[in-house]
């Protein structure tokens, strides 16, 4: 299947399609387990998008997934945090940040990102089933986090 078949059937300007090419190539490399090559493609593609653009958010999220797969949690967190700084409105970014901080025992940060994730749901353009799914994910994360917090810090 061609990546052009996956994209919405709307008119996408040729310059955007050209900018997305390295991202799609990076995804193909990632799917084949060629992680260092995928990383290089993703980083190369960052230059194609202006700051605070959806393209950069997408790429930082892809880098986060890549680093998680490689077992480099600190770099994954850094990538997801860069996605947030770029203006991420995707619940996925906040879910990953909350989960990774929870796994590392950084409960205040985990709770902060879970709470921000719920707020982002209101701004994101997800469909109702996805919104419900992420709402439950964030509620479960907050429950797990609060259960591990000392009683004096629970709210």
Structure, described:
The structure is a single chain. This protein is mainly alpha-helical and about 160 residues long. It has 2 domains: about 1-90, Tetratricopeptide repeat domain (Serine Threonine Protein Phosphatase 5, Tetratricopeptide repeat, Alpha Horseshoe), CATH 1.25.40.10; about 90-155, no CATH class. The chain has 8 helices and no strands. It is globular. The mean pLDDT is about 90.
What is the ordering of alpha helices and beta strands?
Answer: HHHHHHHH
Task: Determine the N-to-C terminus distance.
Answer: 49 Å
Gyration radius from CA atoms, angstroms: 17 Å
**CATH architecture annotation of the largest domain:** Alpha Horseshoe
